[in-house]
Design a protein that fits this description.
The protein is mainly beta. The protein has 5 helices and 24 strands. The chain has 3 domains: 10-145, no CATH class; 158-278, Glucose Permease (Domain IIA) (Distorted Sandwich); 298-340, Roll (Membrane-bound Lytic Murein Transglycosylase D, Chain A), CATH 3.10.350.10. It has helices spanning 57-62, 110-113, 289-293, 307-314, 318-325; strands spanning 10-13, 84-86, 93-97, 101-103, 106-108, 136-139, 158-160, 163-165, 168-170, 173-176, 182-184, 189-197, 202-209, 213-220, 222-223, 230-231, 236-239, 250-257, 260-262, 268-269, 274-275, 279-282, 298-300, 338-340. The structure holds zinc ion.
Length: 342
C-alpha cells in the first residue's frame, strides 16, 4: 500500500526571499496574510440509511463498497474554494489538498465510504477477519489535518482484558469508572449506532472514524449523541454506567475494523494513557485470536446436573445454553450427554 495518508491536508508554502526579487518590494508582514479556511464537506446523505428508513440488512452487504483494486478517486477542493491562491505580490503560494480518505488500501470518497451505513447492526460488513491476508497501514490520527485521538475514559484502569473470559470471548476491554463519568470519542468520526441492548451492551454507541476503525462504547447510562452526528476525538458522547449485561459500572470498549474486533491494547497504552502509534499496521496476526474465540466448548452431564446448575457452573446464561443446545430450561438431561456451553 503506497498511500498511507488518511484525510490528508497538505499545505505547501513557497516563500521567495525578498533579496531574490528583481524589484524593490516592501517586506511582507506574515501576520497579515490571510490563510484560507479549511472546510470539510458533509457526506452524500442520500445513501445513508437512517433508522426510520432501514428495512433490509441483505441490501447492505450488496451495497458494500470496500472493493479492492478500485481506481483512486480523490476529492480535491474546488480551486475557487480557497484551494489555491496567489498572493498579489507573488510572495506566498498556498496549496491545499484535503478530503482524502484511504480505507483498506484504496482511496475512496466520502460518498462511497458512507454508502454502507447501518444504524442497527454492529457488524453489517459480513467480512471474516480470519480471512484477512493483507497489511493495512491506518493513520490513527493526523494532527496536521486536525484529526486527533483521545482516551475513551480519563482513568483508563482496565478491569478486564480482551480475550477468553468465562468460556466466552471478550471482544473488548472493560475500563473501570463511576456511574456518570464522561465517555469520550476515541477519534474523530461520525455516530453510526445509538442503541439499547438489555441483554448485552446495554446502552451503547458505535462510532465510525475517518481512520477506518470503528469503536464501541457499552453499558452507558446515557447517550449524548445521535446517529449521523459528527464527533471530534475527546468529545463527550455519553455517560458511563452499568446498563445491560454488566455486574458493575464499567465501560466496555471495542475497536473494530470492518466489523471484526481487535484488541484495543494494540492501539492504546491504557497504563500510560497514550496511543501506541500514529500509524498502525493492521495485519492477519491481529485477527489470529478468532480461531481461539470460535472454539466450541462442551460439558459432559454428570448425575444430578441440570441446565440451571451448568449455567451457574460456567456462568453462561440459561438462555444461551438453551439456544446453543436447542433445549428449554425444563429439558431433562441424561448423564453423559454433551452440552455445548459456548
Ligand atoms: Zn466488556
Amino acid at each position: 500500500m503506497k498511500f498511507v495518508h488518511c484525510f490528508t491536508l497538505l499545505i505547501t508554502l513557497f516563500y521567495f526571499p525578498a533579496y531574490a526579487q528583481p524589484h524593490n518590494k516592501k517586506k511582507k508582514d506574515f501576520s497579515e496574510i490571510k490563510v484560507p479556511a479549511v472546510e470539510y464537506t458533509l457526506p452524500d446523505m442520500e445513501n445513508i440509511l437512517f433508522e426510520d428508513d432501514y428495512q433490509d440488512t441483505s441490501r447492505v452487504s450488496e451495497s458494500y463498497t470496500f472493493v479492492p483494486e478500485r481506481e483512486p478517486n480523490m476529492l480535491y477542493e474546488d480551486e475557487e474554494d480557497s484551494a489555491f491562491f496567489d498572493d498579489e505580490e507573488g510572495d506566498l503560494h498556498v496549496v491545499e489538498v484535503n478530503e482524502q480518505m484511504n480505507i483498506d488500501s484504496i482511496w475512496i470518497t466520502y460518498a462511497q465510504y458512507f454508502a454502507i451505513w447501518d444504524s442497527k447492526t454492529i457488524n453489517p460488513y459480513k467480512i471474516d477477519g480470519a480471512e484477512f491476508k493483507d497489511t493495512i497501514r491506518l493513520t490513527l490520527y493526523d494532527s496536521l489535518s486536525g484529526l486527533n485521538w483521545a482516551l475513551p475514559h480519563f482513568e483508563s484502569k482496565i478491569n478486564s482484558k480482551f480475550g477468553m473470559r468465562r468460556y466466552r470471548w471478550h471482544y473488548g476491554i472493560d475500563l473501570d469508572l463511576n456511574i456518570g463519568d464522561p465517555i469520550s470519542a476515541a477519534f474523530d468520526g461520525i455516530v453510526r449506532i445509538v442503541q439499547y441492548d438489555s441483554r448485552g451492551y446495554g446502552r451503547y454507541i458505535v462510532l465510525r472514524h475517518y481512520n477506518g476503525l470503528e469503536t464501541l462504547y457499552g453499558h452507558l447510562t446515557k447517550a449524548l449523541v445521535q446517529v449521523g452526528q459528527l464527533v471530534k476525538a475527546g468529545e463527550t458522547i455519553g455517560l458511563g454506567g452499568s446498563t445491560g449485561r454488566s455486574t458493575g459500572p464499567h465501560l466496555h470498549f471495542e475497536i473494530r475494523y470492518e466489523g471484526n474486533a481487535i484488541d484495543p491494547e494494540y492501539i492504546f497504552d491504557f497504563q500510560n494513557k497514550t496511543l501506541k502509534t500514529q500509524k498502525f499496521d493492521l495485519m492477519p496476526l491481529h485477527f489470529s485470536y478468532l480461531k481461539e474465540a470460535r472454539k466450541v466448548f462442551y460439558h459432559t452431564v454428570r448425575k444430578g446436573e441440570s441446565l440451571g446448575s451448568i449455567s451457574r457452573k460456567y456462568k453462561v446464561p440459561l438462555s444461551t445454553l438453551c439456544r446453543l443446545n436447542g433445549m428449554t430450561p425444563k429439558t431433562i438431561l441424561r448423564v453423559g450427554r454433551k452440552i455445548r456451553i459456548r
